[in-house]
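Session log. Operator J.P. requested a structure for one protein chain; no other inputs attached. Running the standard single-chain path with token output.
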Amino acid sequence: MPPRLALPMRSLWRRRNEELDPEVDFVEIYRNLTLYEFPWDFNQSLSLALFRTYAVPSIGRLLHETRQFEERCQQRYDDTALLLEAPLVHGFDSEAGRTGVRRVNQMHKMYDISNDDMRYVLSTFVVVPQRWINDFGWRRLTEGELRAMVNYFRTLGQHMAIRDIPETYDEFMHLMDDYEREYFAYDEGGRKVADATLDLLKDFYPRPARGVLDVFSRALMDEPLLTAFRYDEPGRPARRASAAALRARARVLRHTPSRRKPTYVIDSPRIRSYAPGSFRLADLGTFPATAQGCPVHRDPVDA
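Structure written below.
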């Protein structure tokens, strides 16, 4: 390891990423961001990214009809996180990476999901974390890091056989924003999935804090998302307080050493279905026998 990487400086991973090529080393760059530089921020923002997708009726209604997120929300949370982490940690061409992506594809093939919905979900994985880091991260992503994130999810999308994947961040951003403007709408099923997810997130915290967390969660949602779920507006003071708390955290982090130990999904106290070494990637997720039927897909135009 070069001497400068041994220094306990907050710039360790930014310097490391600047030495890498985002067109070639995008998996390593994105891994450095998510496991070392911004593990908490990426966890929060990717959770919010998935949450946004429930506000598209064709997605939220399908998830509701599977009953998985309402009856087994903790396990679905755990399985999703572990499967998506596999190619990140081990690479797309590794046995673990191929297994993780294959299980995701097998689950998706159980239902008639449109390519447009798949592209939209992929776009949230790129755009929502970038916006979160801009607003609440201790530093912003460099152009190379953002390009690496785009290339990472383009590659993931290609492995999932998604067609017409955007090539740049701006294209991902316009896709996500345009899709939400056109298709965000209230659906009872989507609302139930959102409620179940919020209940799970609140359960990660002590009971006295859950009321505050409910307001905090809604304070991080923009008006179109609140409207789509028919959630109450938390109010300007709550929005200001929530943003201030996150920005105060960022200011503190600027003066702390860079992390030297990776933060893996399985090490998180939020993962409750499995202990380290107690599962096989090939066994995670849902299978036809447990999927409770195959809900009919509704195209967005019919939602």
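Operator note: The CA atoms of residues 53 and 121 lie 6 Å apart.
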